[in-house]
Write a structure and sequence with these properties.
The chain is an alpha/beta fold and 335 residues long. It contains eleven helices and eleven strands. The chain folds into two domains: 209 residues, Aspartate Aminotransferase, domain 2 (3-Layer(aba) Sandwich); 104 residues, Aspartate Aminotransferase, domain 1 (Alpha-Beta Complex). An eight-stranded mixed sheet has the order 1-8-7-6-5-2-3-4, with helices on both faces. A three-stranded antiparallel sheet has the order 9-10-11, covered by helices on one side. The radius of gyration is 21 Å and the shape is globular. It starts with 8 loop residues before the first helix and ends in an 11-residue tail after the last helix.
Length: 335
């Protein structure tokens, strides 16, 4: 069954309703382009918004998938540091690279987990309007916010229509669904839809219509609420386990939401060595330092917990602790 390259209208209407109610967005179905993934959305942004050799502003540290997408388009990566309030807009304003786009993960910054403050959100909006720039807002796991009320998305706060909003269903439903979307200012809809139609035509129609019905009947909202409660409990388990078994090795940074916990290594511990020793024990540790640009890097790990039960989380942390403290771990492989 062939369909509209922009996406099935019932699904676009359901997404618009959801975003307007749950994320404080200001969206119509005509602004939405249904895609297969966040990476496809980033690829389109890279190809259509940034010319080869031109700069793109990315958070530092930041999401490797965004970096790869813009590098593939031969854009020049310009890192902008992040602090406890999100991207530093003072550095954004001081930047003289001539960049016309900035990529952000404001709900739960990847990988630090910090939530961008309302003041910073408004400042980046004003910066974009003043300079004729685009904001690419990747709201990849905003549904899973556990502490306090979530802040409205940048797109909903942006009265100048300079924000491109990216969302996905792979975090809330399952990765194999291969379904995401991008919300565009009206002036970009035609170009993005045409480019997408050249790439792969459209997202499978049956999947779109099934998801639309799932959302229209309220099942999606119920599912998200249930998963938010489950993931919040798993976050508490992993934080407690890290504090109990890995004290003196790492300090966990408590995120307000998201599906992973950044852990900073204490002085004297090598990121490379801990990853090597964990691998030998059968535990995969994604390092933090690879997500930083420049010489100043935080050493540590990024621990995901969404797919594990409470028992599996505690068992994995205990196994990791034994491996790092030089104790034999049941079932571990000797290097």
């Amino acid at each position: 069954m062939h369909g509209d390259p922009q996406g099935a209208k019932p699904l676009r209407e359901a997404i618009a309703t959801y975003l307007n109610l749950e994320r404080g967005a200001k969206v119509s179905a005509e602004q939405i382009l249904v895609l297969s993934s966040t990476r496809q959305a980033l690829f389109l942004c890279a190809q259509l918004l940034v010319d080869a050799g031109k700069p793109i502003l990315l958070e530092n540290p930041g999401y490797f998938g965004a970096k790869k997408a813009f590098e593939a388009a031969e854009a020049r990566i310009v890192p902008i540091d992040v602090d406890e309030q999100g991207i530093r807009t003072d550095l954004l304003r001081a930047n003289r690279s001539g960049a016309t786009c900035v990529y952000l993960t404001p709900s739960h910054q990847y990988p630090t987990g910090v939530t961008m403050s309302l003041e910073r959100r408004l400042d980046v909006i004003h910066w974009a309007a003043e300079n004729g720039c685009w904001i690419i807002e990747d709201d990849y796991d905003s549904e899973f916010h556990y502490d306090g009320m979530p802040t409205a998305c940048v797109q909903g706060l942006d009265k100048y229509a300079r924000t491109i909003y990216i969302g996905t269903f792979s975090k809330t439903l399952y990765p194999g669904l291969r379904m995401g979307y991008i919300v565009l200012p009206q002036e970009l809809v035609k170009a993005f839809t045409h480019a997408r139609s050249i790439m792969d035509g459209h997202t499978p129609q049956i999947s779109q219509l099934t998801l639309a019905r799932f959302m229209e009947e309220g099942h999606y909202n119920s599912h998200v609420r249930a998963m938010r409660k489950l993931y919040a409990s798993r976050r508490e388990v992993i934080l407690e386990s890290i504090g109990k078994h890995l004290a003196g090795i790492v300090t966990a940074q408590r995120p307000k939401g998201g599906l992973q916990v950044p852990c900073l290594l204490e002085a004297g511990w090598s990121e490379q060595d801990t990853i090597r020793r964990a691998t030998a024990a059968g535990v995969v540790l994604p390092g933090l330092s690879r997500l930083y640009a420049g010489e100043r890097k935080q050493l540590g790990w990024l621990l995901g917990y969404a797919s594990l039960t409470a028992h599996e989380i505690e068992s994995a942390i205990l196994c990791l602790a034994k491996a790092l403290r030089g104790m034999p771990s049941p079932g571990s492989r000797v290097q």
